[in-house]
């Protein structure tokens, strides 16, 4: 009788599906976030203070600005790893140009760089057809070189432009306001517009998207441009916060961005994800970083935690995909 | 047959998906050295039965006995251990590896961690000899013909000690000569005591290769007989549930102006000199065996494949298909044969799947309202009787094949296309849904005047839906039938 294999046959998946639908996808994330906040509140007396939360948000905002278009890209089945280096280059450009020609020209130069670099990525990915991971990995490498080149390997100080990074209208840091505005805009675009829905369709099935008449290449191109412009803006904010352009300021930004987005429930295979999820993912990463700092954990441990966080997040993504397959 | 050892026996096997029973208690028995031909229309339950044998799914009820031992259900590894092997129409080989390597794919014999090349080659040669197949061992699998690669898959099954082979329409993509070789191999296997389940659509093959015939219809086994006692007419009647001549042909509408006109279209290797036209409100079918070029013709018109010569006109204007995006903006719709790859957005809702081609029309300042989509879905859900239990927001991947196909068809009706190109529109669709699909296509052609061109390898489909039937054989038009001349025997004769 040992050979007899009997498998449990699921009676009817309808019941299970219904029960599952009642719990939103974001519930586990919210739970994790609350648990982390509770833990760090006990672990550090400084954690649960308004000033600290302002810090967490201000730190998360720079990453968050980049996260919005990057969420679009990941839902569409693409990725942009060049965000950190692009932010560093725009910071360097900003510091140099502001010192020489003033703030307005400086910001224009940064915007121009964002547009140009976005078009570059867009052309390589959509027209030449190179995989976006490789294209932007290349961009990550060569733009870091460019950032070093601009400042001759040195940090470039910048005068009279702290407000972008440090102003606090009604007590909220300006970068947080910018991020919140972008997040809202991004969420509306993804949910309610043709553009946003096309992004889901492309990520869900790129071949079918062509057949139904969606102009996939144009949409991917535009999203790469948005991503580069957002990186440029993030670079400008960072530079303003530091009062200096540093070639190292964007290091590891791509890691934080991808971690937040994937934690937030976006699938690297495309077709799934949301801005709300990304914001939750971002807060989890931000709270973890902040908590570790307050607990005096050495920085190299923070690096280790960040890297592991990404692996945990993508593992969840894969496990979820497997569960979905067996249920179908 | 002299042997009568029963290798496998299914008793009263039932299978339900989401509470819908698709197999209603089927028996099947295969003896050693015996070939059972399994026949049935699309959606009759053949593929469900095959999946149960392969261990992909478990029956909801019923027994499976292998070599006299009873199982409630098999899993994939269990089925393999018991010597059950599948041979599918699609190849599962590694094209860049050699014939010998492919025969042992993944189970290469080793000595101390290194592949034992001599043993591998000797055994590969031995099994090819056993099958009386002559293919050089060092040829790359990718350089072989489809039929030869299929024989390699059988050879691999034998290396792994297959006792029971399930061949799922292996002949569909083969030339006549290749089919002969396949039959030779099958008779070798018979003499070696291997039991086989042979699934086919070609009735003429049954008497050549089978010992037993079993016909499925709508999830029931409706005929089980000795192959030598069964006539072609018996099989057709059992498959259709009525006499083939009893089909009611649609009333031919009186077509008006020409919408789609194609002149001497060639793609350089699969089809050539195709000329045809489809008029307003007309349904024209291109009938041909799989591989005859019917689907490629439609893909070329839609801009998914290149053409080298010829001309396409839409309502009198010359149209050069450059990409699907262009074609859709010219109001041409395309329903692909491969629903998963080219048709549906699995993780998105049915409403969105239905509306996706109409977003340009629906959008106001770039915004698409959910209610607009849901209304559109409501309309077509009713017209096509789509059953989505959880409403417009249900993910399309959770629907049955038939319902998914209806959503994809509704997509193009909602987009109000002028030309609709359908490739195998009812493949993998159950009988009831097929009827709905035929009805709606005819009704829409009549009411909206859409010109419909269908590529199909299913002659019954042609009989049920075509105003006009063109038959494609080896990439060329071999016959055209209208009115009462559209019937099965004419079609089959012209297609081979």
> Which consecutive residue ranges of chain A, at least 5 long each, have pLDDT under 50?
1-22
Kindly state the number of beta strands of chain B: 22
Q: At the first level of CATH, what is the class of chain A?
A: Mainly Alpha
Overall pLDDT metric of chain A: 88
Outline of chain A: globular
* Rg of chain B, Å, rounded: 24 Å
Number of helices of chain A: 14
GO cellular component, one term (chain B): plasma membrane
InterPro entries (chain B): AAA+_ATPase, ABC_carbohydrate_import_ATPase, ABC_transporter-like_ATP-bd, ABC_transporter-like_CS, P-loop_NTPase
GO molecular function (chain B): ATP binding; ATP hydrolysis activity
Subcellular location (chain B): Cell membrane
Describe the structure.
The complex is a heterodimer of chains A (328) and B (496). Chain A has 328 residues and is an all-alpha fold. Chain A has a single domain (26-318), classed as ABC transporter involved in vitamin B12 uptake, BtuC (Orthogonal Bundle). Chain A has 14 helices and 2 strands, in the order ααααααβαααααβααα. Chain A has helices at residues 13-22, 27-43, 50-75, 83-101, 103-128, 132-150, 163-166, 174-192, 194-204, 206-211, 216-242, 253-263, 275-294, 299-327; strands at residues 156-157, 244-245. Chain A has a two-stranded antiparallel sheet. In chain A, helix 12 (253-263) runs parallel beside helix 14. The longest helix of chain A has 29 residues, at 299-327. Chain A starts with 12 loop residues before the first helix and ends with a helix. In chain B, the strands form 5 sheets. In chain B, strands 6-9-10-3-11-12 form a 6-stranded mixed β-sheet, sandwiched between helices. In chain B, strands 18-19-20-15-21-22 form a 6-stranded mixed β-sheet, with helices on both faces. Chain B folds into 2 domains: 4-238, 3-Layer(aba) Sandwich (Rossmann fold), CATH 3.40.50; 255-493, Rossmann fold, CATH 3.40.50. The model of chain B has no long low-confidence stretch (mean pLDDT 86). With 496 residues, chain B is an alpha/beta fold. Chain B is 34% helix and 26% strand. The longest helix of chain B has 18 residues, at 431-448. Chain B is built from 18 helices and 22 strands. In chain B, helix 4 crosses helix 5 (146-159). The chains are: A mainly alpha (328), B alpha/beta (496). Chain A binds chain B through residues 3-7, 9, 12-14, 17, 192-195, 197-198, 200-201, 204-205, 207-215, 271-272, 328, and chain B through 18-19, 58-60, 69-75, 78, 302, 304, 323-325, 327-329, 334, 336, 341-348, 352, 356-357, 359-360, 363, 366-369, 389-390, 397-398, 411.
């Amino acid at each position: 009788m040992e050979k007899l294999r009997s498998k449990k046959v699921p009676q009817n998946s309808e019941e299970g599906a219904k029960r599952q639908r009642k719990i939103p996808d974001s519930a586990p994330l919210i739970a994790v976030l609350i648990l982390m906040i509770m833990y760090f509140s006990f672990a550090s007396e400084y954690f649960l203070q308004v000033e600290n939360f302002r810090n967490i948000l201000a730190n998360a905002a720079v990453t968050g600005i980049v996260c919005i278009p990057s969420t679009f890209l990941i839902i569409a089945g693409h990725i942009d790893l060049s965000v950190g280096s692009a932010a560093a280059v725009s910071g360097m450009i900003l510091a140099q140009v502001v010192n020489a020609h003033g703030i307005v020209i400086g910001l224009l130069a940064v915007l121009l760089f964002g547009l140009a670099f976005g078009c570059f990525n867009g052309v390589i990915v959509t027209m030449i057809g190179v995989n976006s991971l490789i294209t932007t990995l290349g961009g990550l490498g060569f733009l870091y070189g460019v950032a070093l080149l601009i400042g001759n390997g040195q940090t470039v100080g910048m005068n009279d432009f702290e407000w972008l990074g440090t102003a606090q209208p009604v007590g909220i840091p300006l970068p947080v306001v910018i991020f919140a505005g972008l997040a809202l805009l991004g969420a509306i675009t993804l949910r309610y517009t043709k553009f946003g829905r096309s992004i889901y369709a492309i990520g869900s099935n790129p071949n079918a998207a062509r057949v139904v008449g969606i102009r996939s290449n144009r949409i991917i191109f535009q999203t790469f441009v948005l991503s580069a412009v957002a990186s440029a803006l993030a670079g400008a904010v960072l530079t303003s916060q530091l009062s200096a352009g540093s070639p190292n300021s964007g290091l590891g930004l791509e890691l934080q961005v991808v971690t937040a987005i994937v934690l937030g429930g976006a699938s690297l295979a495309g077709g799934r994800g949301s801005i709300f999820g990304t914001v939750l993912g971002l807060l989890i990463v931000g709270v973890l970083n902040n908590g570790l700092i307050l607990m005096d954990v050495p920085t190299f441990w923070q690096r280790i935690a960040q890297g592991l966080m990404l692996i945990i997040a993508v593992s969840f993504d894969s496990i979820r995909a497997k569960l979905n397959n067996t249920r179908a | 047959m002299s042997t009568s050892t029963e290798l496998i026996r299914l008793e009263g096997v039932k299978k339900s998906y989401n509470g819908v029973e698709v197999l209603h208690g089927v028996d099947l028995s295969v003896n050693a050295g015996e070939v059972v031909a399994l026949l049935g229309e699309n959606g009759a339950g053949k593929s469900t039965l095959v999946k149960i044998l392969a261990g992909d799914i478990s029956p909801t009820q019923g027994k499976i006995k292998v070599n006299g031992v009873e199982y409630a259900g098999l899993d994939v590894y269990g089925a393999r251990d018991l010597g059950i092997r599948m041979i599918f129409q699609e190849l599962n080989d590694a094209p860049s590896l050699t014939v010998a390597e492919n025969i042992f794919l993944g189970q290469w014999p080793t000595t101390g961690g290194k592949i034992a090349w001599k043993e591998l080659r000797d055994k590969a040669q031995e099994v090819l000899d056993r099958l009386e197949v002559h293919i050089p061992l060092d040829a790359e699998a990718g350089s072989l013909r489809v039929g030869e690669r299929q024989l390699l898959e059988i050879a691999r099954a034998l290396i792994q000690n297959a006792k029971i082979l399930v061949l799922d329409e292996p002949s569909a993509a083969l030339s006549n000569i290749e089919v002969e070789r396949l039959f030779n191999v099958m008779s070798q296997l018979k003499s070696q005591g291997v039991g086989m389940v042979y699934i086919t659509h070609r009735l003429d093959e049954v008497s050549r290769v089978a010992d037993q015939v079993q016909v499925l219809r709508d999830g029931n086994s409706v005929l089980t007989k000795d192959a030598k006692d069964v006539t072609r007419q018996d099989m057709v009647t059992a498959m259709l549930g009525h006499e083939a001549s009893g089909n009611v042909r649609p009333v031919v509408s009186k077509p008006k102006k020409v919408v789609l006109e194609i002149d001497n279209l060639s793609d350089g290797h699969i089809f050539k000199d195709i000329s045809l036209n489809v008029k307003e409100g007309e349904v024209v079918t291109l009938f041909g065996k799989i591989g005859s070029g019917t689907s490629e013709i439609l893909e070329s018109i839609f801009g998914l494949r290149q053409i080298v010569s010829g001309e396409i006109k839409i309502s009198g204007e010359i149209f050069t298909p450059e990409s699907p995006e262009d074609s859709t903006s010219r109001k041409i719709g395309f329903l692909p044969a491969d629903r998963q790859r080219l048709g549906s957005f699995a993780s998105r809702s049915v409403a969105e799947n239905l509306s996706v081609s109409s977003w340009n029309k629906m959008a106001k300042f770039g915004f698409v309202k959910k209610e607009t989509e849901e209304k559109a879905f409501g309309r077509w859900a009713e017209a096509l009787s789509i059953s989505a239990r959880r409403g417009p927001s249900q993910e399309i991947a959770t629907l049955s094949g038939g319902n998914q196909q209806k959503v994809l068809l509704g997509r193009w009706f909602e987009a109000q296309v002028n030309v609709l190109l359908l490739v195998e529109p009812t493949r993998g669709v159950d009988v009831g849904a097929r009827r709905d699909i035929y009805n709606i296509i005819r009704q829409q052609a009549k009411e909206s005047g859409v010109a419909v061109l269908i590529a199909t390898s299913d002659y019954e489909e042609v009989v049920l839906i075509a105003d006009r039937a063109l038959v494609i054989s080896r990439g060329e038009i071999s016959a055209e039938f209208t009115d009462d001349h559209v019937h099965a025997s004419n079609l089959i004769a012209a297609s081979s």
